[in-house]
Q: What sequence folds into this?
């Protein structure tokens, strides 16, 4: 289950109901939202000049597709106005610009107003890779998790992204959906249409066994790779990462295990391991996350992650230390 | 602000005279709030009052027009205007700034008639633009009216939104600038001047009108315009006087935030006409 090519071709809206088995997170978002908008005319799709050419929503629903230009703050705030007028705005721009440049707007619109606005943020973590530090985002979970009332999701694979988008439309609650660039991942098995609070890819029999907890696309890819290298290791995957969902997930995690290694493409500060450590004071929680450096060299996604200490050897080392 | 503004104007009544009477009552309420233990942003609340009262009158048409006070620090003026216009039944002045009541120093959606939190400057402009966009997408004729301060125009978010509003041809978006010339630390002209303001809006692709921001008749007429077919947003640059209505402070930068005692409040209120 490794990411495929880093440049996915632009895809026109399929003529039939058949769809590709696996799209990248942001392509799966575009495709699913386009389908949902066919039966819900309150859905509007806003982009800030980073939606790319050939956006399927634009092709299918041009009157409800608005490229507002390079104006992230205005886009988030205008989405609040659209939501107040009865629409369901889905807005998208790169994670560093959404979570950091428009942070105050997110606080007010998603948090204080609890407006039914969904922010879809690709280029999370260092998926921007060689584009450089301006295009990296290792702080978004810390920022968004501190804003009460925002549902935060970091889906892994096509199926999870589609389920998260459907839930955002259905619930009308504010959502922040984190995704990567163009990498594609084979979806984890899902039973039913709703995502479980904890997706147990494998549960070891012994409660004392170390459990990998994977977060986001690359965190999950690394956890799955570690499972292949260390068969028998428990693995729990989390999609929803806001405080409310994480509190419930932590309780379920603790019913099965007491030692956890959390793998996440985010800084340790404000990340999910830190949150779980607070929620599970009787458990051992360690973290494999980005260190405190600023990547300043090129490379592909995996290479930039490795420069931050986020690679398979780091996960295996953490598992080894946790098992002692 | 909610469109559920209750109007007590009768058909054929002198609208301007009625709105002027409301403005007098509202100014006295603002002075009451300045005499609270919290004090208030007096100068900007008094300068913006006539604009707010005229805009709320426009919203009372019930066509989906929404008024957003973007210069949220003028919350006292907003609460007073909502009350005298009928959108806020209870008198906010005795409750202003007190625990258990929603009348905070910057307004939020817990206040009846207020939809958006403002005061962190710049945000009310895109809120109103988004509202206007929603109206257009639904085929409705309501306006999104943002009331901003001239100091507030120093925020980049305002101009981001102007760019977007023009590009989206939001003819039902109206930005009214309460140009009182002051800001927190002094005069706009001394801190970050705004030369050729009307030309700036025109360059963005706005229709532009300059008006006396205390002329209720002119403001009412401007905001009553049918903009159904308009493809350019409208900027109204309204010249106002900071502290308008209280002679002791009119035009003075120092009246930006004021706390006064009850005796002074009573004297000022008697003088408001």
A:
């Amino acid at each position: 289950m490794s990411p495929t090519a880093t440049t996915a071709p632009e895809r026109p809206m399929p003529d039939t109901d058949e769809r590709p088995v696996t799209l990248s997170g942001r392509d799966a978002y575009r495709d699913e939202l386009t389908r949902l908008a066919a039966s819900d005319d309150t859905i509007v799709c806003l982009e800030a000049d980073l939606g790319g050419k050939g956006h399927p929503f634009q092709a299918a629903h041009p009157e409800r597709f608005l490229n507002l230009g390079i104006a992230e703050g205005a886009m988030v705030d205008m989405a609040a106005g659209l939501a107040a007028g009865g629409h369901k705005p889905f807005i998208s721009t790169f994670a560093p610009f959404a979570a950091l440049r428009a942070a105050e707007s997110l606080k007010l619109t998603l948090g204080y107003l609890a407006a039914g606005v969904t922010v879809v943020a690709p280029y999370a973590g260092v998926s921007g890779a060689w584009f450089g530090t301006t295009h990296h985002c290792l702080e978004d979970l810390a920022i968004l998790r501190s804003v009460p009332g925002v549902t935060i999701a970091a889906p892994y694979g096509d199926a999870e992204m589609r389920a998260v988008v459907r839930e955002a439309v259905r619930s009308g609650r504010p959502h922040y959906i984190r995704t990567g660039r163009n990498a594609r991942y084979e979806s984890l098995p899902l039973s039913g249409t709703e995502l479980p609070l904890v997706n147990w890819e494998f549960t070891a029999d012994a409660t004392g066994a170390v459990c990998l907890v994977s977060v986001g696309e690359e965190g999950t890819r690394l956890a799955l790779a570690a499972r292949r290298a260390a068969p028998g290791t428990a693995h729990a995957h989390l999609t929803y990462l806001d405080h409310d969902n994480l509190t419930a997930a932590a309780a379920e995690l603790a019913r099965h295990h007491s030692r956890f290694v959390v793998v996440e493409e985010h800084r340790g500060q404000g990340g999910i391991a830190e949150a779980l450590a607070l929620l599970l004071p009787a458990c051992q929680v360690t973290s494999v996350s980005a260190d405190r450096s600023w990547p300043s060299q090129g490379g592909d996604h995996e290479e930039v992650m490795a420069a931050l200490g986020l690679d398979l050897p780091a996960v295996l080392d953490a598992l080894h230390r946790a098992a002692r | 602000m909610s469109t559920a503004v209750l109007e007590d104007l009768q058909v054929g009544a002198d609208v301007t005279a009625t709105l002027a009477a409301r403005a007098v009552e509202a100014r006295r309420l603002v002075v009451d709030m300045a005499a609270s233990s919290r004090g208030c942003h007096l100068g900007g609340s008094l300068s913006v009052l006539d604009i707010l009262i005229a805009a709320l009158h426009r919203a009372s048409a019930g066509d989906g027009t929404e008024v957003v006070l973007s210069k949220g620090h003028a919350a006292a003026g907003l609460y007073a205007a909502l009350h005298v216009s009928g959108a806020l039944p209870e008198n906010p002045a005795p409750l202003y700034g007190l625990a258990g009541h929603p009348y905070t120093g910057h307004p939020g959606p817990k206040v009846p008639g207020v939809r958006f939190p403002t005061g962190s400057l710049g945000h009310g402009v895109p809120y109103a633009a988004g509202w206007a966009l929603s109206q257009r997408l639904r085929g409705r004729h309501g306006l999104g009216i943002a009331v901003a301060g001239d100091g507030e125009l120093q925020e980049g978010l305002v101009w981001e939104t102007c760019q977007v509003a023009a590009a989206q041809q939001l003819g039902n978006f109206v930005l009214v600038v309460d140009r009182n010339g002051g800001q927190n630390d002094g005069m706009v002209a001394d801190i970050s001047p705004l030369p050729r303001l009307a030309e700036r809006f025109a360059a963005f692709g706005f229709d532009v009108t300059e008006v006396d921001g205390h002329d209720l008749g002119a403001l009412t007429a401007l905001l009553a315009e049918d903009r159904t077919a308009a493809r350019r947003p409208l900027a109204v640059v309204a010249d106002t006087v900071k502290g308008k209505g209280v002679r002791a402070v009119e035009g003075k930068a120092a009246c930006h935030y004021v706390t006064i005692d009850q005796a002074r409040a009573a004297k000022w209120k008697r003088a408001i006409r």
User: Anything to note?
Assistant: Residues 2-6 of chain B have pLDDT under 50 and may be disordered. Strands of chain B lie at 66-69, 144-149, 173-179, 182-183, 186-187, 207-212, 234-239.
